[in-house]
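Catalogue entry: protein

Sequence with per-residue tokens
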Amino acid sequence: MPKEEVIKIEGEITEILPDGRFRVRLENEHEIIAYTAGKMRKNRIRSIVGDRVHVEMTPYDLDKGRIVFREKTAPMPMNQRRFFRR
């Protein structure tokens, strides 16, 4: 199997862990530890609990993965947003 082969699967973030890692529950109910990809970190894309994400995994270690895409969610209604001053 070539080195470039990756397994792409969707999941949902269930917990935020230290050092930019996340616990992700995959479609097949398997839980893994994932980190954000470089492009997401570079463009400051934030992920929170409940976000649907796309994860890439190597076939050699099926307990770890890399979050490569966060699906867009519907924006919050104006009456539920919290406004604050900096």
